[in-house]
Amino acid sequence: MSTQDETFELYDLKVEVVCPPGARIMCGAKPGDYFVLEGEMLYLPPNQGISIYSLSAVLPLLAAKQRPTAKFDWMTSDAEVACPDPHCPSRLRITRTGLRLLVPISSSDLRGHKPSLKVIKCQRCSAEWRLPVAYLTKFKMSKVNPVISFVLTSTPTIAIKSVIYYLLRALYQPDLPDTIHPVESIMPEVENKQQLWGGRFTGTTDPLMWEFNQSLKYDKRMRGADIQGSIAYTKALRLQGVYTEEEEAIMIKGLQAVDQEWESGKFEIKPTDEDIHTANERRLSEIVGPVGGKLHTGRSRNDQCATDLRLWLLAEIKDVESALKGLIRVMVERADSEKDILMPGYTHLQRGQPIRWSHLLLSHAFSFISDLQRLRELVPRVSVLPLGSGALAGNPFGVDREFLAKELGFQSIAENSLWGVSDRDYIVEFMMWASLTMTHASRMAEDLIIYSTAEFGFIQLSDAYRPGLPSTYNKDLQEDKEPLFDSVDNVSASLRIAEGVIATLNVNSEKMRAALTMDMLATDLADYLVRKGVSTPFRETHHISGRAVALAESLGVQLSDLTLEQYKKLSPKFEEDVVSVFDFERSVEQRNAIGGTSRQTVDRQIAVLRKALE
Predict the structure, then answer these.
(1) Which domain, by its residues, includes 85?
(2) The Argininosuccinate lyase C-terminal domain covers which part of the protein (predicted)?
(3) Residue where one domain finishes, among candidates 495, 513, 531
């Protein structure tokens, strides 16, 4: 078959598939859902970041999900790429011939796939071009589901800018013909008038810089807070006469519709949606029309973003507080029900004194109670309303900021507008809190890991929690948001996992008891001598008990096996009642000062923690 015949045959190929409800074909693309394939490479639009995925992963997904498929197009184009070394005048000329296909598929379906790269060395300076390699193939189609078999070629592909430009045309010019034409232009510069901040700038933004600044993939989690803030601001503008009651109702209904689209997964992200604020405002204007343009009256993206972030964090703090309280509550309940279990207390991993298992558990619970108190103390510093501060100098329309604070649930108002839009101290404070809390969780995890080893065998962790804690990594120019989001996610997940670990672990009380040895009662032996009225300092009584331990070890017996005569040789104060020392229950019950490991003091600790959770 000639190339021309093959081109014609592939171009006319159509595939019958079931179209999901609400989907429609528009130049082979449904806005927000369609991505461009070049040969074997798939390029995502700029709102998803320029990524490349394997076509072999795409088509089976199309078959499985029964999504509509557009037409194929055979195209040839040339491109020149400058040398990676900016001082070298060499240019690489690329002739690309292959198939182009537009398909509806989400980026999450393709996560983890990586491109193949071809390395080409510059003959002048030895710098390296690294270009994605297109694997052009013969396609075979069934009547329902696409099937593919590959024939390798080694044609380097470089057409990212032209691909993005085509996608922009497809999304914003619905009157384009239903056929796909070769793209020869490069991506246009992004006009500043599309941006919330671009009104005074007459130049254009470099596409690479525009994409680098995008944060929607991270800050879209603030969508609810952004809409909530806009609803409150709409009401405040109505009170100032900017909106009529009818317009207010239209705006609130429109904002609720945007929120519902996000919740249902129907919100269509467009390439010009730089962040969550521009995305919501763009969609709102599409729904309500020109009246949506008045929403920014007196409001800057500065006070809008600052408000959204505080509002979002306040909601997350409530969620984290709930997780922390859940963990403490489980620890307290286990401590209450298992306080009869005794175990060795360790210093430097050496047996020290007998303690209650509950005492160990509660030691970690008190660390978390301190964390809970610190988190609650942080809330008033987060709950400060920036909205109404404008860009930096204040709001010129006299909006009622007290009203806004009440509507949004803020405890106070930023008294200085410049500080209100620039302050990020609360983010640092929360991250410091998260770091300390995770340190406490790590310390508890170390105990649990050690005590669950075969060498100890004191506890057994549930299989559900043995793999460990999750971690994530993200990269974003929004340097305050990314680490904050990451901290919130990790601490919230870790606390919930820790709660599950504590709730489901099994305690081997018999093995704990068996690990108790008489030499752990050496301190009790010294205490016995003090109670007998030994006038020497406590360190001397401790020295006597140490000699008793050494004597027992030399004879290969326990402290309780030494005779009264042997004890009297160490000190005449030893009497027949010395045998009462060798009782682990009595030992822990003697530690009855506040904070000790006796039953009474453990009960007190439980009561203190329960009250703190109220």
Answers:
(1) 3-188
(2) 520-589
(3) 513
Residues 268 and 386 grouped into a single domain: no
Its sign, for the CA torsion 371, 373, 374, 380, is positive
Sign of dihedral through CA atoms 373, 374, 378, 380? positive
| Pair (182, 229) in one structural domain | no
Amino acid at 131: L
Placement of tokens 């009642």 in the chain: 577
β-pair partners for 385: 413
Q: How many independent structural domains does the chain possess?
A: 3
> Could you write out the DSSP letters of every residue in 12-35?
T-----PPPTT---STT--TTTEE
User: CB-based contacts of 173: which residues, under 8 Å, 6+ apart?
Assistant: none
Cα 361 to Cα 605: distance, rounded to the nearest angstrom: 11
pLDDT of amino acid 534: 62
Which of these ranges, 5-14, 156-165, 190-199, 208-217, has the smallest mean pLDDT? Answer: 5-14
**pLDDT confidence tier of residue 369, bands split at 50, 70 and 90:** very high
Are 185 and 165 in contact, with CB atoms under 8 Å apart? yes
More confident of the two residues 314 and 30: 314
Helix axes 425-451, 481-504, angle to 10 degrees: 30
Residues 47, 212, 201, 191, CA torsion sign: negative
Cβ-based neighbours of 440, under 8 Å, separated by 6 or more: 364, 367, 368, 371
Say yes or no: 361 and 502 in one domain: yes
Measured distance CA(221)–CA(303) in Å, rounded? 18
The H or E element that residue 355 is part of is: strand 350-356
CA torsion, points 361, 362, 368, 374, in degrees to nearest 10?
Answer: -170
Among the listed residues 111, 271, 132, 105, the one whose alpha carbon sits nearest the alpha carbon of residue 188? 271
